[in-house]
Every structure is written in C-alpha cells, then in structure tokens.
Design brief:
Layout (H helix, E strand, L loop, with lengths): L2 H13 L9 E6 L2 E6 L10 H16 L5 E6 L4 E4 L3 H9 L4 H17 L5 E5 L2 E3 L8 E4 L5 E2 L1
Parallel strand pairs: 2-3, 3-5, 4-6, 5-7, 6-8
Antiparallel strand pairs: 1-2
Length: 151
C-alpha cells in the first residue's frame, strides 16, 4: 500500500469522526436474524469501502449459514438510515489520483448485486435520511414515516 493511500485512508477516518478502533459496521446475530448496523452517524451512515467489504463478506457467510433465516440492515444515530456512498472520501481520493474511487464503486456495485440476488429475506429498517443503491436493493422495507426522506 502506498504512503499516499495510507494518508488518504487516515484522512478519511479523521473526516468521518471515527478512530480506526471504532467499528463502522456492527454485525450481530439475534436468534435466526442477522443484523447489520451501519455505525457512522456523524456521516449520516454514508457507506465507505471498508463498510462495503465487511458487509459483503458477512452476507456471504450468513447466506450459507442454515441458522440464519433473514438479514436486517439499519443505521445508527436516529438521523439517517444511509446517506449513500461516502462521496467526500471518493472525491478527495480522486483528486489525489488514489484508486479508492475505482475500488469503492466496483465493490459497492458487487455488494448491491449480492443484496439484489440474496437468497434470504433482506430487510431494511429505514429511519431518517435515505440515499444510494444499497438502500434500494431490499426484499422488504420497514419505514418510520415520521422522519423518512428517500432521495
């Protein structure tokens, strides 16, 4: 990994208000349900490359797990489900010539395809601001209509 790329990743973590030790995605099981919580409330739970990779890898494991019957995805913080892709990080990386932009969009679309073709129910608990492809590829939406804004 180049020094420039490390710098961009470090800058992205700083901008998003997260330290490297804070989990941007919380992955858990509750009985037969798998639960994904996007955990970047200061960034309106905007999806970044690290999150896309974690979610994709875990979805593949849960898809093969006979004890997992459905997947629930939600956002933390109460203000947004997901504000889409982290465009700020992608833009800054693109300005510096970093491959983050290409990597992000390639892997986000791979994740979107995995969600769209998932063999188990994939349910989004939408509460607040909602944008982007990951939020549109669900089997079922459960929406809090008092705060919902789908862009």
């Amino acid at each position: 990994m180049s020094l420039n790329r490390l710098h961009n990743i470090s800058q992205h973590l700083t901008m998003s208000g997260h330290s490297p030790s804070e989990a941007e995605v919380l992955l858990a099981k509750s009985g037969c349900a798998a639960v994904i919580t996007m955990n970047r409330p200061k960034a309106l739970n905007a999806l970044n490359l690290n999150m896309a990779r974690q979610i994709y890898q875990q979805l593949k494991l849960w898809e093969e797990d006979p004890d997992t019957f459905l997947v629930i995805i939600k956002g933390s913080g109460g203000k947004a489900f997901c504000a889409g892709g982290d465009i700020l990080a992608v833009t800054n990386a693109g300005k510096s010539g970093d491959r983050l932009a290409q990597d992000f969009f390639r892997e986000e679309y791979i994740l979107n395809n995995a969600i769209g073709t998932y063999r188990k129910p994939y349910i989004a608990f939408i509460d607040g601001i909602t944008m982007g492809g990951v939020s549109k590829m669900c089997t079922c939406y459960i929406i809090n209509d008092t705060k919902w804004k789908f862009c």
